[in-house]
Protein backbone atom coordinates (compact mmCIF):
# COMPACT_ATOMS: atom_id res chain seq x y z
CA UNK A 1 0.00 0.00 0.00
CA UNK A 2 2.83 2.38 0.86
CA UNK A 3 4.46 1.82 -2.54
CA UNK A 4 1.16 2.43 -4.31
CA UNK A 5 0.66 5.75 -2.50
CA UNK A 6 4.23 6.80 -3.29
CA UNK A 7 3.71 6.28 -7.01
CA UNK A 8 0.08 7.42 -7.08
CA UNK A 9 0.45 11.17 -6.72
CA UNK A 10 -0.56 14.50 -8.25
CA UNK A 11 2.13 15.28 -10.84
CA UNK A 12 1.30 18.98 -11.06
CA UNK A 13 1.53 19.42 -7.30
CA UNK A 14 4.90 17.64 -7.12
CA UNK A 15 6.29 19.72 -9.98
CA UNK A 16 5.10 22.96 -8.37
CA UNK A 17 6.85 22.08 -5.09
CA UNK A 18 10.06 21.28 -6.94
CA UNK A 19 9.89 24.52 -8.95
CA UNK A 20 9.40 26.58 -5.79
CA UNK A 21 12.51 24.93 -4.38
CA UNK A 22 14.59 25.81 -7.45
CA UNK A 23 13.71 29.49 -6.97
CA UNK A 24 15.73 29.60 -3.74
CA UNK A 25 18.88 30.53 -5.66
CA UNK A 26 20.89 27.33 -5.22
CA UNK A 27 22.68 26.58 -8.51
CA UNK A 28 22.80 22.78 -8.43
CA UNK A 29 20.54 20.17 -6.85
CA UNK A 30 20.92 16.46 -6.29
CA UNK A 31 17.88 14.24 -5.67
CA UNK A 32 18.81 14.00 -2.00
CA UNK A 33 18.90 17.81 -1.72
CA UNK A 34 15.45 18.05 -3.26
CA UNK A 35 14.10 15.41 -0.87
CA UNK A 36 15.44 17.41 2.08
CA UNK A 37 14.05 20.71 0.78
CA UNK A 38 10.62 19.44 -0.26
CA UNK A 39 9.96 16.32 1.80
CA UNK A 40 9.01 14.48 -1.37
CA UNK A 41 9.84 10.78 -1.84
CA UNK A 42 12.85 10.08 -4.04
CA UNK A 43 10.70 8.00 -6.39
CA UNK A 44 8.52 11.03 -7.15
CA UNK A 45 11.52 13.34 -7.55
CA UNK A 46 13.32 10.98 -9.92
CA UNK A 47 10.12 10.45 -11.92
CA UNK A 48 9.35 14.16 -12.43
CA UNK A 49 12.80 15.72 -12.79
CA UNK A 50 13.31 14.65 -16.44
CA UNK A 51 10.07 16.41 -17.43
CA UNK A 52 11.01 19.54 -15.48
CA UNK A 53 14.51 19.55 -16.98
CA UNK A 54 13.01 19.31 -20.46
CA UNK A 55 10.41 22.06 -19.98
CA UNK A 56 12.80 24.52 -18.32
CA UNK A 57 15.94 23.61 -20.31
CA UNK A 58 17.72 22.07 -17.35
CA UNK A 59 21.21 20.61 -17.44
CA UNK A 60 22.30 17.23 -16.12
CA UNK A 61 25.70 16.90 -14.50
CA UNK A 62 27.48 13.99 -12.83
CA UNK A 63 29.44 14.57 -9.63
CA UNK A 64 32.74 12.87 -8.87
CA UNK A 65 30.79 10.44 -6.66
CA UNK A 66 28.45 9.50 -9.48
CA UNK A 67 25.43 11.54 -8.31
CA UNK A 68 23.22 13.27 -10.90
CA UNK A 69 23.02 17.04 -10.40
CA UNK A 70 20.31 19.24 -11.89
CA UNK A 71 20.88 22.89 -12.76
CA UNK A 72 18.93 25.58 -14.63
CA UNK A 73 21.40 28.11 -16.08
CA UNK A 74 18.69 29.76 -18.20
CA UNK A 75 16.29 30.31 -15.32
CA UNK A 76 12.85 28.82 -14.85
CA UNK A 77 11.18 29.97 -18.04
CA UNK A 78 8.87 27.32 -19.44
CA UNK A 79 9.03 26.72 -23.16
CA UNK A 80 5.58 25.07 -23.21
CA UNK A 81 3.38 27.18 -20.92
CA UNK A 82 2.69 30.85 -20.30
CA UNK A 83 1.78 33.86 -22.45
CA UNK A 84 4.97 33.85 -24.48
CA UNK A 85 4.80 30.18 -25.61
CA UNK A 86 1.04 30.53 -26.23
CA UNK A 87 1.54 33.54 -28.48
CA UNK A 88 4.36 31.79 -30.31
CA UNK A 89 2.15 28.75 -30.93
CA UNK A 90 -0.73 30.97 -32.03
CA UNK A 91 1.56 32.96 -34.28
CA UNK A 92 2.94 29.80 -35.87
CA UNK A 93 -0.56 28.41 -36.43
CA UNK A 94 -1.84 31.65 -37.97
CA UNK A 95 1.35 31.98 -39.96
CA UNK A 96 0.99 28.47 -41.39
CA UNK A 97 -2.63 29.11 -42.35
CA UNK A 98 -1.86 32.45 -43.97
CA UNK A 99 1.15 30.97 -45.72
CA UNK A 100 -0.88 28.13 -47.23
CA UNK A 101 -3.61 30.50 -48.44
CA UNK A 102 -1.03 32.94 -49.75
CA UNK A 103 0.83 30.19 -51.56
CA UNK A 104 -2.31 29.03 -53.36
CA UNK A 105 -3.13 32.56 -54.56
CA UNK A 106 0.49 33.29 -55.32
CA UNK A 107 0.82 30.19 -57.50
CA UNK A 108 -2.10 31.30 -59.63
CA UNK A 109 -0.86 34.90 -59.83
CA UNK A 110 2.66 33.86 -60.84
CA UNK A 111 1.37 31.49 -63.52
CA UNK A 112 -1.05 34.05 -64.99
CA UNK A 113 1.49 36.85 -64.88
CA UNK A 114 4.41 34.91 -66.33
CA UNK A 115 2.61 33.31 -69.25
CA UNK A 116 -0.11 35.93 -69.59
CA UNK A 117 2.42 38.67 -70.31
CA UNK A 118 4.46 36.35 -72.51
CA UNK A 119 1.55 35.50 -74.81
CA UNK A 120 0.28 39.07 -74.72
CA UNK A 121 3.64 40.43 -75.84
CA UNK A 122 3.96 37.83 -78.60
CA UNK A 123 0.39 38.54 -79.74
CA UNK A 124 1.02 42.30 -79.82
CA UNK A 125 4.20 41.76 -81.84
CA UNK A 126 2.32 39.60 -84.36
CA UNK A 127 -0.56 42.05 -84.58
CA UNK A 128 1.83 44.94 -85.15
CA UNK A 129 3.72 42.94 -87.78
CA UNK A 130 0.63 41.99 -89.79
CA UNK A 131 -0.80 45.44 -89.24
CA UNK A 132 2.24 47.07 -90.80
CA UNK A 133 1.88 44.77 -93.83
CA UNK A 134 -1.80 45.65 -94.14
CA UNK A 135 -1.01 49.35 -94.00
CA UNK A 136 1.64 49.07 -96.70
CA UNK A 137 -0.49 46.96 -99.03
CA UNK A 138 -3.98 48.31 -98.52
CA UNK A 139 -3.52 51.90 -97.55
CA UNK A 140 -2.22 53.36 -100.82
CA UNK A 141 -5.60 53.80 -102.52
CA UNK A 142 -7.08 55.57 -99.58
CA UNK A 143 -7.30 59.24 -98.87
CA UNK A 144 -4.39 60.63 -96.90
CA UNK A 145 -6.72 62.00 -94.28
CA UNK A 146 -8.08 58.52 -93.68
CA UNK A 147 -4.72 57.45 -92.29
CA UNK A 148 -5.71 59.20 -89.09
CA UNK A 149 -8.64 56.80 -88.67
CA UNK A 150 -8.79 53.14 -87.86
CA UNK A 151 -8.97 52.00 -91.53
CA UNK A 152 -5.71 53.51 -92.71
CA UNK A 153 -3.70 52.30 -89.71
CA UNK A 154 -5.04 48.77 -89.40
CA UNK A 155 -7.94 49.62 -87.12
CA UNK A 156 -9.83 47.70 -84.55
CA UNK A 157 -11.21 45.29 -87.16
CA UNK A 158 -7.74 44.07 -88.11
CA UNK A 159 -6.78 43.62 -84.47
CA UNK A 160 -9.82 41.55 -83.55
CA UNK A 161 -9.53 39.55 -86.76
CA UNK A 162 -5.93 38.61 -86.03
CA UNK A 163 -6.69 37.56 -82.44
CA UNK A 164 -9.65 35.56 -83.71
CA UNK A 165 -7.44 33.87 -86.29
CA UNK A 166 -4.85 32.94 -83.67
CA UNK A 167 -7.51 31.36 -81.44
CA UNK A 168 -9.02 29.45 -84.40
CA UNK A 169 -5.59 28.28 -85.48
CA UNK A 170 -4.89 26.83 -82.02
CA UNK A 171 -8.39 25.33 -81.77
CA UNK A 172 -8.30 23.60 -85.16
CA UNK A 173 -4.78 22.33 -84.59
CA UNK A 174 -6.12 20.56 -81.50
CA UNK A 175 -9.36 19.55 -83.20
CA UNK A 176 -7.76 17.77 -86.12
CA UNK A 177 -5.07 15.94 -84.15
CA UNK A 178 -5.19 12.18 -84.36
CA UNK A 179 -6.47 10.25 -81.34
CA UNK A 180 -2.96 8.85 -80.85
CA UNK A 181 -1.40 12.31 -80.75
CA UNK A 182 -3.99 13.56 -78.26
CA UNK A 183 -3.40 10.47 -76.06
CA UNK A 184 0.37 10.97 -76.13
CA UNK A 185 -0.02 14.64 -75.18
CA UNK A 186 -2.43 13.86 -72.33
CA UNK A 187 -0.15 11.11 -71.00
CA UNK A 188 2.85 13.46 -71.10
CA UNK A 189 0.86 16.07 -69.18
CA UNK A 190 -0.02 13.51 -66.51
CA UNK A 191 3.63 12.56 -66.13
CA UNK A 192 4.67 16.15 -65.55
CA UNK A 193 3.84 18.37 -62.59
CA UNK A 194 0.90 20.73 -63.10
CA UNK A 195 2.19 23.91 -64.67
CA UNK A 196 1.34 26.17 -61.72
CA UNK A 197 3.20 23.84 -59.35
CA UNK A 198 6.19 23.67 -61.67
CA UNK A 199 6.41 27.47 -61.86
CA UNK A 200 6.06 27.78 -58.08
CA UNK A 201 8.71 25.10 -57.60
CA UNK A 202 11.10 27.08 -59.80
CA UNK A 203 10.55 30.28 -57.82
CA UNK A 204 10.16 28.99 -54.25
CA UNK A 205 11.32 25.38 -54.28
CA UNK A 206 9.45 22.41 -52.82
CA UNK A 207 9.75 22.85 -49.08
CA UNK A 208 11.91 21.01 -46.59
CA UNK A 209 12.75 17.39 -47.54
CA UNK A 210 13.56 16.78 -43.85
CA UNK A 211 10.22 17.97 -42.50
CA UNK A 212 9.67 14.54 -40.90
CA UNK A 213 13.18 14.37 -39.48
CA UNK A 214 12.01 14.36 -35.87
CA UNK A 215 10.07 11.15 -36.54
CA UNK A 216 12.99 9.62 -38.47
CA UNK A 217 15.35 10.37 -35.59
CA UNK A 218 12.98 8.91 -33.01
CA UNK A 219 12.64 5.69 -35.00
CA UNK A 220 16.42 5.33 -35.28
CA UNK A 221 16.81 6.12 -31.58
CA UNK A 222 14.23 3.54 -30.47
CA UNK A 223 15.71 0.87 -32.77
CA UNK A 224 19.19 1.47 -31.33
CA UNK A 225 17.99 1.38 -27.74
CA UNK A 226 16.00 -1.81 -28.30
CA UNK A 227 19.06 -3.56 -29.77
CA UNK A 228 21.37 -2.34 -27.00
CA UNK A 229 19.40 -3.58 -23.98
CA UNK A 230 17.62 -0.28 -23.36
CA UNK A 231 20.86 1.61 -22.73
CA UNK A 232 22.39 4.50 -24.66
CA UNK A 233 25.18 6.96 -23.91
CA UNK A 234 25.39 10.59 -24.95
CA UNK A 235 28.23 9.95 -27.46
CA UNK A 236 26.12 7.19 -29.05
CA UNK A 237 23.14 9.51 -29.28
CA UNK A 238 25.35 12.16 -30.88
CA UNK A 239 26.43 9.61 -33.49
CA UNK A 240 22.77 8.81 -34.27
CA UNK A 241 21.53 12.40 -34.41
CA UNK A 242 24.57 14.34 -35.61
CA UNK A 243 23.81 16.97 -32.98
CA UNK A 244 26.51 18.92 -31.20
CA UNK A 245 27.07 18.00 -27.52
CA UNK A 246 24.92 20.82 -26.09
CA UNK A 247 22.10 20.18 -28.59
CA UNK A 248 22.30 16.43 -27.93
CA UNK A 249 21.91 17.01 -24.18
CA UNK A 250 18.72 19.01 -24.78
CA UNK A 251 17.26 16.39 -27.11
CA UNK A 252 18.08 13.36 -24.94
CA UNK A 253 16.44 15.14 -21.99
CA UNK A 254 13.25 15.42 -24.05
CA UNK A 255 13.47 11.76 -25.04
CA UNK A 256 13.72 10.80 -21.36
CA UNK A 257 10.23 12.21 -20.94
CA UNK A 258 8.74 10.89 -24.18
CA UNK A 259 10.07 7.34 -23.84
CA UNK A 260 9.98 6.98 -20.04
CA UNK A 261 13.72 6.85 -19.57
CA UNK A 262 15.95 7.88 -16.70
CA UNK A 263 19.55 9.07 -16.33
CA UNK A 264 21.69 6.55 -14.52
CA UNK A 265 25.26 6.55 -13.20
CA UNK A 266 27.59 3.57 -12.83
CA UNK A 267 29.55 3.01 -9.62
CA UNK A 268 32.59 4.55 -11.30
CA UNK A 269 30.66 7.67 -12.30
CA UNK A 270 29.81 7.05 -15.99
CA UNK A 271 26.53 8.62 -17.11
CA UNK A 272 24.13 6.66 -19.31
CA UNK A 273 20.41 6.66 -20.07
CA UNK A 274 18.14 3.68 -19.45
CA UNK A 275 14.80 3.12 -21.20
CA UNK A 276 13.31 -0.08 -19.73
CA UNK A 277 9.86 0.56 -21.25
CA UNK A 278 11.32 0.24 -24.76
CA UNK A 279 12.45 -3.31 -23.97
CA UNK A 280 8.85 -4.50 -23.56
CA UNK A 281 8.65 -5.36 -27.26
CA UNK A 282 6.83 -8.26 -28.87
CA UNK A 283 8.91 -8.46 -32.07
CA UNK A 284 12.56 -8.46 -33.02
CA UNK A 285 14.41 -5.42 -34.33
CA UNK A 286 16.72 -5.73 -37.31
CA UNK A 287 20.32 -5.23 -36.22
CA UNK A 288 21.13 -3.70 -39.62
CA UNK A 289 18.36 -1.12 -39.24
CA UNK A 290 19.50 -0.28 -35.72
CA UNK A 291 23.12 0.23 -36.75
CA UNK A 292 22.37 2.35 -39.84
CA UNK A 293 22.16 5.97 -38.80
CA UNK A 294 19.95 8.01 -41.17
CA UNK A 295 21.32 11.04 -43.01
CA UNK A 296 19.46 14.24 -43.70
CA UNK A 297 18.53 14.87 -47.33
CA UNK A 298 20.03 17.82 -49.17
CA UNK A 299 17.63 20.42 -50.48
CA UNK A 300 17.19 20.69 -54.25
CA UNK A 301 16.58 23.89 -56.19
CA UNK A 302 13.31 22.57 -57.62
CA UNK A 303 11.59 19.34 -58.60
CA UNK A 304 11.60 20.35 -62.27
CA UNK A 305 14.05 19.05 -64.82
CA UNK A 306 16.70 21.49 -66.05
CA UNK A 307 14.99 21.99 -69.39
CA UNK A 308 11.77 23.19 -67.76
CA UNK A 309 13.62 25.59 -65.45
CA UNK A 310 15.48 27.00 -68.48
CA UNK A 311 12.16 27.43 -70.29
CA UNK A 312 10.77 29.49 -67.41
CA UNK A 313 13.90 31.66 -67.45
CA UNK A 314 13.66 32.30 -71.19
CA UNK A 315 9.96 33.16 -70.91
CA UNK A 316 10.83 35.62 -68.17
CA UNK A 317 13.68 37.08 -70.26
CA UNK A 318 11.15 37.79 -73.03
CA UNK A 319 8.89 39.52 -70.50
CA UNK A 320 11.84 41.47 -69.12
CA UNK A 321 12.88 42.69 -72.58
CA UNK A 322 9.35 43.67 -73.61
CA UNK A 323 8.66 45.30 -70.24
CA UNK A 324 11.86 47.34 -70.50
CA UNK A 325 10.99 48.27 -74.07
CA UNK A 326 7.52 49.58 -73.20
CA UNK A 327 8.69 51.35 -70.03
CA UNK A 328 11.52 53.13 -71.90
CA UNK A 329 9.32 54.26 -74.76
CA UNK A 330 6.51 55.35 -72.44
CA UNK A 331 8.94 57.67 -70.67
CA UNK A 332 10.65 58.99 -73.79
CA UNK A 333 7.91 59.03 -76.47
CA UNK A 334 4.64 59.09 -74.54
CA UNK A 335 1.69 59.73 -76.86
CA UNK A 336 3.79 61.23 -79.66
CA UNK A 337 3.44 58.13 -81.83
CA UNK A 338 2.19 59.70 -85.10
CA UNK A 339 4.65 61.53 -87.31
CA UNK A 340 4.29 63.45 -90.59
CA UNK A 341 6.08 62.02 -93.59
CA UNK A 342 6.24 62.92 -97.27
CA UNK A 343 3.29 60.59 -97.81
CA UNK A 344 1.26 61.99 -94.94
CA UNK A 345 0.66 60.93 -91.33
CA UNK A 346 1.83 57.52 -90.13
CA UNK A 347 3.00 55.70 -87.02
CA UNK A 348 6.62 55.90 -85.93
CA UNK A 349 8.70 53.24 -87.62
CA UNK A 350 11.79 51.30 -86.72
CA UNK A 351 12.16 49.92 -83.23
CA UNK A 352 9.43 52.21 -81.92
CA UNK A 353 6.76 50.86 -84.27
CA UNK A 354 5.52 48.16 -81.84
CA UNK A 355 5.13 50.71 -79.06
CA UNK A 356 3.43 53.20 -81.38
CA UNK A 357 1.05 50.55 -82.68
CA UNK A 358 0.20 49.42 -79.13
CA UNK A 359 -0.57 52.98 -78.03
CA UNK A 360 -2.73 53.40 -81.11
CA UNK A 361 -4.66 50.21 -80.31
CA UNK A 362 -5.13 51.37 -76.70
CA UNK A 363 -6.58 54.66 -77.96
CA UNK A 364 -8.91 52.72 -80.30
CA UNK A 365 -10.09 50.68 -77.33
CA UNK A 366 -11.05 53.85 -75.47
CA UNK A 367 -8.09 54.52 -73.19
CA UNK A 368 -8.08 58.22 -72.18
CA UNK A 369 -4.31 58.28 -71.57
CA UNK A 370 -2.98 55.36 -73.61
CA UNK A 371 0.72 56.12 -72.98
CA UNK A 372 0.19 56.07 -69.18
CA UNK A 373 -1.81 52.83 -69.38
CA UNK A 374 0.80 51.18 -71.60
CA UNK A 375 3.67 52.47 -69.44
CA UNK A 376 2.25 50.93 -66.26
CA UNK A 377 0.43 47.89 -67.65
CA UNK A 378 3.00 46.70 -70.20
CA UNK A 379 6.08 48.44 -68.85
CA UNK A 380 6.41 48.85 -65.08
CA UNK A 381 4.27 45.85 -64.01
CA UNK A 382 5.95 43.12 -66.11
CA UNK A 383 9.36 44.70 -65.53
CA UNK A 384 8.95 44.56 -61.74
CA UNK A 385 7.57 41.03 -61.93
CA UNK A 386 10.46 39.85 -64.12
CA UNK A 387 13.04 41.32 -61.75
CA UNK A 388 11.39 39.51 -58.81
CA UNK A 389 11.10 36.32 -60.84
CA UNK A 390 14.87 36.36 -61.25
CA UNK A 391 15.78 37.80 -57.84
CA UNK A 392 13.82 35.37 -55.64
CA UNK A 393 15.33 32.17 -57.12
CA UNK A 394 18.76 33.81 -57.11
CA UNK A 395 18.53 34.67 -53.39
CA UNK A 396 16.99 31.27 -52.65
CA UNK A 397 19.82 29.54 -54.52
CA UNK A 398 22.36 31.34 -52.34
CA UNK A 399 20.49 30.43 -49.14
CA UNK A 400 20.05 26.86 -50.39
CA UNK A 401 23.78 26.46 -50.78
CA UNK A 402 24.37 27.69 -47.24
CA UNK A 403 21.64 25.44 -45.77
CA UNK A 404 22.97 22.40 -47.62
CA UNK A 405 26.42 23.07 -46.19
CA UNK A 406 24.91 22.97 -42.69
CA UNK A 407 23.15 19.68 -43.53
CA UNK A 408 26.37 18.21 -44.90
CA UNK A 409 28.19 19.21 -41.75
CA UNK A 410 25.56 17.62 -39.53
CA UNK A 411 25.70 14.42 -41.57
CA UNK A 412 29.50 14.51 -41.41
CA UNK A 413 29.40 14.70 -37.61
CA UNK A 414 27.59 11.34 -37.53
CA UNK A 415 30.48 9.71 -39.35
CA UNK A 416 33.06 11.41 -37.13
CA UNK A 417 31.29 10.52 -33.88
CA UNK A 418 30.81 6.93 -35.08
CA UNK A 419 34.53 6.79 -35.88
CA UNK A 420 35.41 8.06 -32.40
CA UNK A 421 33.17 5.41 -30.81
CA UNK A 422 34.89 2.72 -32.87
CA UNK A 423 38.44 3.72 -31.91
CA UNK A 424 38.50 6.22 -29.02
CA UNK A 425 42.12 5.34 -28.12
CA UNK A 426 43.54 6.51 -31.44
CA UNK A 427 41.14 8.27 -33.80
CA UNK A 428 42.82 9.73 -36.88
CA UNK A 429 40.63 12.45 -38.36
CA UNK A 430 43.01 12.76 -41.32
CA UNK A 431 42.07 9.29 -42.51
CA UNK A 432 38.31 9.94 -42.47
CA UNK A 433 36.74 9.24 -45.87
CA UNK A 434 33.66 11.23 -46.86
CA UNK A 435 32.23 9.11 -49.68
CA UNK A 436 29.09 10.98 -50.72
CA UNK A 437 28.07 14.56 -51.30
CA UNK A 438 25.63 14.43 -48.37
CA UNK A 439 28.51 14.15 -45.89
CA UNK A 440 31.15 16.24 -47.67
CA UNK A 441 31.12 19.97 -46.77
CA UNK A 442 32.87 22.42 -49.09
CA UNK A 443 35.21 23.62 -46.36
CA UNK A 444 38.19 21.19 -46.24
CA UNK A 445 38.82 22.11 -42.59
CA UNK A 446 35.35 21.00 -41.46
CA UNK A 447 36.54 17.62 -40.19
CA UNK A 448 39.33 19.14 -38.11
CA UNK A 449 37.03 21.84 -36.70
CA UNK A 450 34.37 19.37 -35.58
CA UNK A 451 36.92 17.01 -34.02
CA UNK A 452 38.48 19.88 -32.08
CA UNK A 453 35.03 20.91 -30.85
CA UNK A 454 34.30 17.34 -29.71
CA UNK A 455 37.75 17.08 -28.11
CA UNK A 456 37.15 20.28 -26.11
CA UNK A 457 33.84 18.91 -24.85
CA UNK A 458 35.20 15.48 -23.87
CA UNK A 459 38.68 16.59 -22.72
CA UNK A 460 40.42 14.55 -25.42
CA UNK A 461 44.13 14.77 -26.10
CA UNK A 462 46.10 14.59 -29.31
CA UNK A 463 48.99 12.14 -29.39
CA UNK A 464 52.44 12.62 -30.86
CA UNK A 465 51.43 10.74 -34.03
CA UNK A 466 48.56 13.17 -34.64
CA UNK A 467 45.79 10.80 -33.51
CA UNK A 468 43.21 11.72 -30.86
CA UNK A 469 42.78 9.90 -27.57
CA UNK A 470 39.20 10.32 -26.29
CA UNK A 471 39.74 9.04 -22.76
CA UNK A 472 36.32 10.05 -21.39
CA UNK A 473 34.47 8.47 -24.32
CA UNK A 474 36.42 5.24 -23.89
CA UNK A 475 35.68 5.20 -20.16
CA UNK A 476 31.95 5.72 -20.63
CA UNK A 477 31.66 3.08 -23.36
CA UNK A 478 33.54 0.46 -21.33
CA UNK A 479 31.39 1.12 -18.29
CA UNK A 480 28.19 0.87 -20.32
CA UNK A 481 29.27 -2.45 -21.82
CA UNK A 482 29.40 -3.84 -18.28
CA UNK A 483 25.93 -2.42 -17.62
CA UNK A 484 24.53 -4.01 -20.77
CA UNK A 485 26.11 -7.34 -19.89
CA UNK A 486 24.29 -7.29 -16.55
CA UNK A 487 20.85 -6.64 -18.05
CA UNK A 488 18.56 -9.57 -18.86
CA UNK A 489 16.16 -8.52 -21.60
CA UNK A 490 13.82 -11.33 -20.62
CA UNK A 491 13.10 -9.46 -17.38
CA UNK A 492 11.58 -6.61 -19.40
CA UNK A 493 10.04 -8.49 -22.33
CA UNK A 494 6.28 -8.60 -22.78
CA UNK A 495 4.69 -11.34 -20.65
CA UNK A 496 2.72 -14.20 -22.11
CA UNK A 497 -0.75 -13.32 -23.37
CA UNK A 498 -3.50 -13.91 -20.82
CA UNK A 499 -6.32 -12.19 -22.75
CA UNK A 500 -7.03 -11.87 -26.46
CA UNK A 501 -10.08 -10.00 -27.83
CA UNK A 502 -9.96 -12.26 -30.91
CA UNK A 503 -10.02 -15.50 -28.93
CA UNK A 504 -13.27 -17.50 -28.94
CA UNK A 505 -15.34 -17.28 -25.78
What tags apply to this protein structure?
505 residues; mainly alpha; Arc Repressor Mutant, subunit A; three-stranded antiparallel sheet
Describe the structure in your own words.
The strands form four sheets. Strands 1-3-2 form a three-stranded antiparallel β-sheet. Strands 4-6-5 form a three-stranded antiparallel β-sheet. Helix 2 crosses helix 4, helix 5 packs across helix 13 and helix 15 packs across helix 16. Among the domains are: 81 residues, Arc Repressor Mutant, subunit A (Orthogonal Bundle), CATH 1.10.10; 188 residues, no CATH class. It is built from 17 helices and ten strands. The protein is elongated. With 505 residues, it is mainly α. Strand 7 and strand 8 form a beta hairpin. About 7% of the residues have low confidence.
In a nutshell, what does this entry contain?
Helices cover 60% and strands 7% of the residues. The protein is mainly alpha-helical and 505 residues long. The strands form 4 sheets. It has a 3-stranded antiparallel beta sheet with strand order 1-3-2. Strands 4-6-5 form a 3-stranded antiparallel beta sheet.
Structural class comes to: mainly alpha
Tell me the span between the first and last alpha carbons.
35 Å
Q: List SSEs in N-to-C order.
A: HHEHHEEHHHHHEHHEEHHEEHHHEEH
How helix-rich are the residues, as a percent range?
Answer: 55-70%
Task: Give start-end ranges of low-pLDDT stretches.
Answer: 140-159, 168-176, 497-502
Measured by DSSP, the beta-strand proportion falls in: 5-15%
Molecular shape:
elongated
Strand order of the largest sheet: 1-3-2
> Number of DSSP strands?
10
**What is the tally of helical segments?**
17
- The average pLDDT value, as a whole number, equals 78
Radius of gyration: 36 Å
For the sheet with most strands, the description reads: 3 strands, antiparallel
InterPro entries: At5g03900-like (IPR044200)
Keywords: Membrane, Transmembrane, Transmembrane helix
Transmembrane segments: 108-134, 154-172, 311-328, 373-395
Amino acid sequence: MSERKTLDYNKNEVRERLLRTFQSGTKEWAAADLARATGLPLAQINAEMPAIADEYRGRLKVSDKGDILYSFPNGLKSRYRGFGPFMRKLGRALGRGAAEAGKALFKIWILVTLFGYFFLFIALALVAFFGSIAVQQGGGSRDRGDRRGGGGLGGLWLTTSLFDSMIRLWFYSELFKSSEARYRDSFARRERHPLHKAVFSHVFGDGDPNADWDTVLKKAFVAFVQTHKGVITLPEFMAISGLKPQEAEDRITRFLVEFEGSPEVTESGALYFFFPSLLAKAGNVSAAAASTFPLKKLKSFSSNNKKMDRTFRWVNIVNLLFGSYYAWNAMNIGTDVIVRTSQGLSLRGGLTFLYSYTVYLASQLGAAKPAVVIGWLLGAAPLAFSVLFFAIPLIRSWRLKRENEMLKRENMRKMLYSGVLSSPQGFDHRAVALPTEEVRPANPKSVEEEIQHLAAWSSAEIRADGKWFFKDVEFVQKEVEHVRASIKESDYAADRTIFDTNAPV
